[in-house]
Amino acid sequence: MSESGKSTVGEYLRTHHGYARLKIGYLIQGAATRESIAAPYRLDPVLQAELIVDALDRYCEAHHFLDSVSIESLHDFDSTAELARILGSQLTIAYLDVSAAVRAQRGTAGARDVADRDVVKSAQGADKIASIAQEVIGNDVQPETHGGSVRRNCAVSAPSQEQAINRLNQTRLPG
């Protein structure tokens, strides 16, 4: 859901664990452009997942030195479930669980903007992704007021959350 800390966790995985950080839109748009598909978000979830896997495969082939990637912003439940089916144990789905009140406070454009974006994401089933996630990480930490830390919205210092990040770090792409 909006303002749950997906980008912050992606950045944390990149800077502390060496993950490549990819956005789902980058993968879908790149694959759709290669295949001359004008509206990839209107595709059947199976085709959408196949586009994502194709783009991910191409990215990993071009960046053969990487062994872990983070894909941010899986908003569509059906395409996420299909990704899980296709990738199996190569994919770990992590869901950041944050209350609506905290997410509303985090939104820089205001609580109404967060609520509006959540309506769209809920219609795609983003709120159901927790039900298929291997890791559900509570992230209700209030942003710190003293600035720039990449961990400001990411509550990975608590032992159970640090263990979840470590389990994510142990999920590697085949070498």
What can you tell me about this protein's structure?
The structure is a single chain. With 175 residues, the chain is mainly alpha-helical. 48% of the residues lie in helices and 9% in strands. It has seven helices and four strands, in the order αβααβαβααβα. The strands form two sheets. It has a two-stranded parallel sheet. Strands 3-4 form a two-stranded parallel ribbon. The longest helix has 18 residues. The relative contact order is 0.19.
Structure summary:
With 175 residues, the protein is mostly helical. The protein contains seven helices and four strands; from the N terminus they run αβααβαβααβα.
Topology readout:
Blueprint: H1 6-17, E1 20-23, H2 24-34, H3 45-62, E2 69-72, H4 77-87, E3 94-97, H5 100-106, H6 111-123, E4 135-138, H7 159-170
Parallel strand pairs: 1-2, 3-4
Give structural attributes.
single chain, 175 residues, mainly alpha, two-stranded parallel sheet, 7 helices, 48% helix, disordered C terminus
